[in-house]
Amino acid sequence: MSFLLPTRYLEGSSAIGFFASDTVSVGLTNGRKKKLKNVLIGCTQTIKGDLGGFKGADGVLGLGFGKYTFTTKVAEEFGGKFSYCLVDHLSPKNLTNYIVFGHNKIETSLMRSMRHTDLVLGGVYGSLYGVNVLGITIGFTLLKIAPEVWDPNLGGGTIIDSGTSLTYLADPAYKLVTAAFNESISKFERLSTEGGPFEFCFNSTGFNESLVPKLQIHFANGAQFEPPVKSYIIDVAPQKKCLGFVSAGWPGTSIIGNIMQQNHFWEFDLERSTLAFASSSCT
């Protein structure tokens, strides 16, 4: 059975095609294969707008949470978990990301460094993965960001999304974060940001990461996420770096994008509604 359905993306593009129920064969870690029945597959016929990010791809694997998603279907079969690790987007081609559905056997050293926080599923977030953010520290200063910025019931909230590259911050948080980092990069020559999403770009000649204060995102349950500097001071061209945040407006949902998630292991437990993470080389 199949039916026609449009899909619309946040930046305005849309795709129209057919959804059909099919059987999918997946490889297991023991070398065997397993067939998953009644998996919903989409076949795009028409694209409107700019979906350039998908050019050259044979397909898109959506990781959203919902009744009919691939993630939920696989989670039902393999214990309700999936995990992934993303290498630096500028890494050599021989280094690859990975994703595992089900229990992932990880090293003891990684297990010891894992931090856990709540995963907010359903409700106002729909098929997205919500997290409870309590605040952001730059250097040794906790920024005075209004609590409503992190509250999805008051126009804010935060999701963690592997399908979004950059990190979006609701405007009240964006202004404070960029102002804090601008102090440390103000001595470098500002460069044009025309044609790109960034507001702060500079000539990186003589730049050293030690000049930039550390970023910490504070999650509920005491979990602190401290990404490497290269995940928020981003290389965009030779001798050109940009501050990798974009304003989500206000009201607006903040998004922790995949560049910010790089060099970390992430485990989504859909049964227990928890998110675990730890710094990792992803090898």
Describe what you observe in this structure.
InterPro entries: Pepsin-like_plant (IPR034161), PEPTIDASE_A1 (IPR033121), Peptidase_aspartic_dom_sf (IPR021109), Plant_Aspart_Prot_A1 (IPR051708), TAXi_C (IPR032799), TAXi_N (IPR032861). Keywords: Aspartyl protease, Glycoprotein, Hydrolase, Membrane, Protease, Transmembrane, Transmembrane helix. Belongs to the peptidase A1 family. It is a single chain. The chain is mainly beta and 283 residues long. It has a domain at 93-279: Cathepsin D, subunit A, domain 1 (Beta Barrel). Strand 19 and strand 20 form a beta hairpin. The strands form five sheets. Strands 5-4-19-20-6-7-10-18 form an eight-stranded mixed beta sheet. The N and C termini lie far apart (41 Å). The chain has helices at 70-77, 108-113, 171-185, 258-261, and strands spanning 2-8, 14-27, 33-48, 81-85, 98-101, 115-120, 130-131, 133-138, 141-142, 158-160, 167-169, 201-203, 215-219, 224-225, 233-237, 240-243, 245-247, 254-256, 264-269, 274-279. The radius of gyration is 20 Å and the shape is globular.
Task: Offer a few descriptive terms.
4 helices, TAXi_C, 283 residues, 4-stranded antiparallel β-sheet, Cathepsin D, subunit A, domain 1, transmembrane helix, hydrolase, Peptidase A1 domain-containing protein, globular, membrane, mainly beta
Can you describe this structure in just a few lines?
The chain is mainly β and 283 residues long.
